[in-house]
Specification:
heterodimer; A: about 190 residues; mainly alpha; Rna Polymerase Sigma Factor, Chain: A; B: two-stranded antiparallel sheet
């Protein structure tokens, strides 16, 4: 097996790109759901992948490349949010961040067929996601959008499984409260 | 009876997500399942939680702008190569610091002020003994137990 980061730069880039190509949909989807818009998603993904490439020698072939990159991406995202929060405290001119939840409670509930259309739910769900803290949003994205288990998330984020569970449950409960008015009339859900 | 039901509801609600994720087993799973089937409020809460997860799973796959991947590819080629992964990469740096430290210590040895240079009869006396016997800060001479060989001056007779 060829060692990474051993001076053959062109080969390193090609190996890295081949691995990224296998998971690019997942990477961009996670970045988009975390940030909530295209521009920030592209910035986040680019920053995470450049960081991953610089640290490519740390990646052990045979382990999950997608999980490794997702870990770098989530840390990049959470760090970025923290820095922005600190900047926001010092920036008196910046308007406060608004959480748009009003329309979740609006009239759209009257037409179940319309609500059942997933495309119609895209915006309310993304807005509800955006209103969560970065830690809760990250776990929700990894669990319910990327389909990772509690244990996988714990490994990726390097936090205890119990923390994953409590954060995930809190995040879902918050999503339920925000989305219930939209989902309920559509009759979505299961019969246990 | 009502209070008991409320307590059970509260307990079951704390378990709904574990139940939904298939992480409940045995008696707790059975209790939760039975309760949810007969309690409309808990039933609805479970249905809503399940719907939230289903909707999240069903979100579309966004795609980046067309120029994103080609631009990233160029940036990767311009970026510094992955750092060396050798586990002992820190050894040369530590060795360099140690060598520098040794050089500084060695050079520093030659620049220590020579304090035992009084131009007096004490000089010849002190020079005949280990430097520890001479304490210039005290303005005098502490004589060792014995005199230097072949030397028997009157004590501080030069004064």
């Amino acid at each position: 097996m060829r060692l990474l980061g051993r001076g053959d730069e062109a080969a390193d880039v090609e190996t890295f790109e081949a691995l990224v190509a296998r998971h690019h949909t997942r990477f961009y989807r996670a970045a988009y759901r975390m940030t909530g818009n295209e521009q920030e998603a592209e910035d986040l993904l680019q920053e995470a992948l450049l960081e991953a490439f610089r640290d490519f020698h740390r990646f052990r072939p045979g382990t999950r490349f997608d999980h490794w990159v997702l870990r770098i991406m989530t840390h990049t995202y959470i760090d970025g949010r923290r820095k922005r929060r600190v900047q926001a405290v010092w920036s008196l001119d910046s308007p406060p961040e608004e959480v748009q939840t009003e329309y979740l409670l609006a009239d759209g509930a009257s037409d179940p067929q319309r609500l059942l259309d997933r495309a119609q739910l895209e915006e309310p769900v993304q807005n509800a996601l955006d209103s969560l803290s970065s830690e809760h949003r990250t776990i929700l994205v990894l669990a319910d959008i990327e389909g990772m288990s509690y244990e996988e998330i714990a490994r990726v984020l390097r936090i205890p499984v119990g923390t994953v569970r409590s954060r995930l449950h809190r995040a879902r409960e918050r999503m339920r409260q925000m989305l219930a008015p939209v989902l309920r009339p559509a009759g979505m859900g299961i019969t246990p | 009876m009502r209070a008991r039901d409320d307590r059970l509801c509260e307990r079951v609600r704390g378990l709904l997500q574990d139940y939904m994720d298939g992480r409940l087993h045995g008696a707790r799973r059975r209790t939760t399942q039975e309760h949810v089937q007969r309690c409309p409020l808990c039933h609805r809460e479970l249905a809503e939680l399940t719907a939230v997860v289903q909707v999240m799973q069903g979100l579309g796959n966004p795609v980046p702008a067309d120029h994103f991947w080609p631009r990233l590819s160029s940036r990767l080629r311009e970026a510094p190569a992955p750092r060396s992964g050798h586990r002992l990469a820190w050894v040369p740096a530590v060795a360099l610091v140690l060598v520098a430290l040794l050089v500084v210590l060695w050079l520093g040895r030659g620049t220590t002020p020579n304090i035992a240079t009084p131009a007096s009869p004490v000089e010849s006396y002190a020079n005949g003994y280990p430097s520890s016997v001479f304490e210039p800060g005290r303005g005098g001479v502490f004589l060792p137990a014995g005199d230097p060989p072949g030397y028997a001056p009157a004590r501080n007779s030069w004064r």
